[in-house]
Amino acid sequence: MSKKILFLFTLLFSVFLVEAQNSDTKYSRDLEDVLLDIEKQYQVDLSFAGSMVRGKMLDYANWRFRPTIEETLKNVLTPFDLVFEKKDDNTYRISHFRYSKITLREGVERLEYMKTLYDDQKSWEVRKAELKECMRAIFHLDDLPEWPDSDPIVTNKRKMNGYQVENIALEVLPGLYTTGSIYKPAKLKGKVPVILCPNGHFTNGRYNEDMQIRCAMLAQMGAIVMNYDLFAWGESLLQFEDHKQSTAQLVQVLNSERILDYLLSLNHADPDRVAITGGSGGGSHTMLISAIDERINVSVPVVMLSCYFYGGCPCESGQPIHLCGGGTNNVEIAAMFAPKPQLVISDGGDWSNHVPEYEFPFMQRTYGFYNQLDHVKNVHLPEEGHDYGRSKRIAMYDFMGGFLQLDTLSVKDKSGNYDESNSVIEDEAAMYVFGNDKANLPEKAILGIDELKKVLKTTFGE
Prior knowledge:
By secondary structure, this protein is α/β, with parallel strands linked by helices. Helix content is 36%, strand content 19%. The chain has 14 helices and 14 strands.
């Protein structure tokens, strides 16, 4: 027995003797005291809020100690739905359990496990079909009723230099509206690509400056582009005030399906050139819609691919999509898009920081089943953070431009650099359909989550 282990067990049983614990009391100890002992024994600092542990009693406390700090912490914290995260060699932060976030090690282990489930195109297609069937069932996509028979509400058409914009509301379910802005080329001729731009949780939602620039640039290149609100963000706040509902993910999927149906009904829409791109929560949505809707041809998820983070908002993980197939993650969901063209944009400042090491090789393996490694790319920006800024947009322009045959030269300067100066940053009011007054909503618009649940129950039996 090593000196370290001998010391550990000597200390362990000395504590037993001092406190005169026994099986009659289940060797119970105050959790806060146990954590203080762990700090001393392993010579580490534990960061935690006192309110998180104070007054909680841990049965068989010292029996949970193990030779390593991490085994011990797991045994001690798990009964209370607490978890730990290593911050440096001597510091661990304790927090409440988050179903949507695991450790990097656990995420990598999950990827390695999933590799054992398939090793060629045939076995992968079986797995993919299972996942897709499960996810589509969660969102009722194979038994959707007809969309409400109401005309789109279009407002404030305006012309810009090289593109035009109009605001639109579509009725998705009876009394439920999705709102957004459609960007089109100044002159529409022939068939043109269609691009969905779902929002993430960036400041100001679809009114965000980066979002407006991206949509305007893609329209100037020759695409029809739609920028639309999250559930209970933007003008959706007129109907619903709480974004953090599991229903948010269901509604946002239905919104995208309804929007795509509408855009593809337009005379100039090319059904063979359909793309989607979003950042953060919009990146989660990009991966999901790409996986479950065959109409998408090109996908660019931004700053969201991660094997250890599933999206902390109910609009990303509120429905049990990650429990499909016995358990999956966003990397496998993104891989479901293979062999179609996909660009993953990642950075060093968030949970996409390990994409080049772990997530992207996993995706390459899947694309390799189809001999289409040239269809999956990763642009990693190690010095950048969680946004959809210019460098990320440029990577997307290049990728979309190639696979959608966009006119990228029309938005470049004499030096060959992308020139975003013609993209007008509008005030929020210019982008409104209904404005900021509920009185402007259609008379049949539903208000509040309870009314929405009634509509969902009537429609889907939920």
